[in-house]
Amino acid sequence: MSVLPPLKVSECFYSIQGEGPSAGVPAIFLRLSGCNLTCGGLNTCKTGELDNGATWRCDTIEVWLKGENVSPHNLILDWENKGWLHNIKNGAHIVVTGGEPLLQEDALVAFFQTLEVLIKKKLYIECETNGTIRPASDFDYFISQYNVSPKLKNSGMPKDKRINGHAIQFFKRSEKATFKFVIRARDEYDQLLGDYITPFNINKSKIMIMPAASSRQAFVLNSLPILELCKQENIRFSPRYQLLFWDKTTGV
What is the spatial distance between Cα 235 and Cα 227, in angstroms, rounded to a whole number? Predict the structure, then answer.
């Protein structure tokens, strides 16, 4: 058996997709370690506090900062022991998330190739990305759906770090990509208009808006004004089922 590059894995779990265009679909989540952005501010990983103008903080930082190297073969064996390969054969999606999974493209391609040969069918793979890295063609071949979540000024990230025009253009043209923006209020919608929709001419049919929240209570409260905004702008609303059902953002 050939030696394949390891994946740096933070967590794996079987649940339902809670967000985006396939919300409600059973899915195996593969959360990878590491990210090229630190939403919450430039120093938030060290301090746990907001800085640099951020109004929210990535709710999975403490998870994706950790991780261990796992070979694709051992990862597949673990999934088989948990019965997840059976779930995949019966239609469950694979959701690759992070952090930023595109930082580990080469290892993911090797993993997808090995798993697809074993399953003997085309996998349905979702890639959750911040939209700052343009996927390579061999990676894109395996992806069925991109859930692209570009960041706004409220993330605390400088514009040159959070916006990569070449990557945004790729996702804009891809029939597999949907843009999902997390906002709190109308002024942040104006930001996404100015940073993304207008300069890149993104069709609103490719956009979803999700309320910023890190708890069930906050999601319910913050959803009402965002629902009204979606109605006014004719844009799809994204749920966050993991908050509604479990009051958690990860591991469920």
Answer: 9
Provide the number of structural domains found in the chain. Answer: 1
Question: Nearest Cα to 67, choosing from 107, 113, 40?
Answer: 107
Q: What is the pLDDT of residues 74-117, one digit of tens each?
A: 999 999 999 999 999 999 999 999 999 999 999 999 999 999 99
- Pairing type for strands 7-16 and 68-70 reads antiparallel
Q: Which two tokens stand for residue 92?
A: 């469950």
- Kindly report the pTM of this predicted structure: 0.95
End-to-end CA distance of the chain: 33
Closest residue by Cα to residue 121 from 93, 92, 144, 89:
89
Listing DSSP states for 7-18 in one string gives: EEEEEEEEEE--
- Domain enclosing residue 149, as ranges: 7-246
96: domain CATH number is 3.20.20.70
